[in-house]
Amino acid sequence: MFIIVGQAFLWTPTYAASLGALNKHLLPHGSAIMNTIQQLVGAAGIAIAFSVTTATKTALVAGGESIRPAMARGAQHSYLVAFGMVVVGLLAALMMPRKSPLNGMPIAAH
Predict the structure, then answer these.
(1) SS3 of residue 56 by DSSP
(2) 95 or 75: which carries more pLDDT confidence?
(3) What integer pLDDT is reported at residue 67 of this predicted model?
(4) Residue 109 lies in a domain
(5) Is 27 inside a domain boundary?
(6) CA 79 to CA 83: how far, in whole Å?
(7) Is residue 28 part of a domain?
(8) What's the Cα-to-Cα distance from 62 to each of 32, 49, 50, 55, 72, rounded to whole Å?
(9) pTM score
C-alpha cells in the first residue's frame, strides 16, 4: 500500500510538471518519454527488491540460519528499502515546482 501511495505522490506531480512545461506540439513526445521512464523505473525497482531479498537471504544462510526465516528476513529488508524509496519519492513530489519554468517560451524541437 505504501509503495502505491508513494508512486501516486511521485508520478502525478511529475507528469503534471513535466508535461505542463511543454508546448502542445511536444506533448506526445513528452508523454512517450514519461511512459518509458516509468516502465524502466518499475523494472529497476523489481530488480532492486529481488537483489536485496537474495543478498540478505544468502548472507543469513551463509551465517547458519535456515532458508525459510532467511527468506522472510530478506523480504522484510526488501520492504524496508522500498519504503525508503517511497519516502524519497514523497519528498521529491513535495519539491516539484508549482509553475511552469518556461513561462510560455517556445521549446526548439529537433
Answers:
(1) helix
(2) 75
(3) 93
(4) no
(5) no
(6) 6
(7) no
(8) 45, 20, 18, 11, 15
(9) 0.65
Q: What percent of the chain shows pLDDT beyond 70?
A: 86
Q: Is 35 exposed, middle or buried (0-12, 13-18, 19+ CB in 10 A)?
A: exposed
What's the rounded Cα separation, in Å, for the pair 27 and 35?
12
Q: What pLDDT digit, counting tens, does each position of 40-91 carry? A: 988 998 999 999 999 999 999 999 999 999 999 999 999 999 889 888 888 8
Amino acid code (one letter) for 105: M
Is 22 contained in some domain? no
Average pLDDT taken over every residue of the chain: 83
Domain, as residue range, for 48: 36-97
* Strand, helix or coil for residue 101: coil
**Residue among 48, 11, 3, 22 nearest 104 (CA):** 22
Domains in the chain, number? 1
- Numbers of helices and strands, H then E, in the chain: 3, 0
